[in-house]
Amino acid sequence: MNLGQITFLCRIVGASLLAVGFLSGTAFSQPKAADTIPVVAPSSYSADAKVGTYNQPEWTTHRKFTTSRSYVIPQGTLGAEMWLKAHKYKDDTPNDYLLQQELEYGLSNRIQLDLYINQLNKEEDGKRKWDTEGVQYEVRWAMANWGEMLLNPTWYFEYHWVKNGPEKGEVRLLLADNIAENWHFSSNLGYELELWGEERERELVATLALGTTSFSQTLSIGAEIKGEWVDTKDTRGHMHPETMIGPSFNWRPTRDVHVDLAPLFGIQDDAPRNEVWLIVGAELN
What we know:
This protein is mainly beta. 8% of the residues lie in helices and 54% in strands. It has one helix and 14 strands. The protein has one helix at residues 3-24, and strands spanning 50-51, 56-57, 78-88, 96-106, 111-124, 127-142, 154-162, 168-180, 183-194, 202-216, 219-231, 240-254, 257-266, 274-283. The radius of gyration is 19 Å and the shape is globular.
């Protein structure tokens, strides 16, 4: 990454943090009295304990699943995550690795802001190198406090600036709930479109995740499945499917730190052989 690219990314991060600070200091970040639910957090972590202004279970305050997002984080929460995603292909395509650094902040009115800076490692001309992949801006809005609507629907909007390709826009519907004591469910339905370029690739996404903390409140074990259907301007209506499935692990070594791991395996012959996700995150305030 050259000096110009570093300067550009620093400006993006700086502007984003200033925007978060401004919004959190205005009336936009002040909860209405009617929306405030006095909930006292337990002294030790309990996945189903209700916390925060939105009366949400504690398992939703940090990322629990790698491929499936859930609800929003509590108002005033600042968090950071480091992602590593590895692809291993079945053909001769070289493996690639995506490193993402994320900041997330919870505003009032069930709104969450996220910023990702992405680095991609892949083989070119027989050599491997890291390079900037892009920057992602994300906004989430939960439609109601937890438990007031079926499956707690949350809208997710993302703009993805790509260094060496067309920008992308994405919208998702996030669904999540407790299906039984210490059993947690999340599902996403998404649509992503390249905003310009010759291919104008579009992608439909569906995820499903299920996990339990029945054995240990600090360790969740479950499974995740992710399906993607892709077409381009020249192949509209003939979408190429890729389905990945595998186990899911979520570990909280402390109340404010979480580690997520999901080794997924491709079902179709032309899907990646493996897609391994590793996420380490922490609450910063």
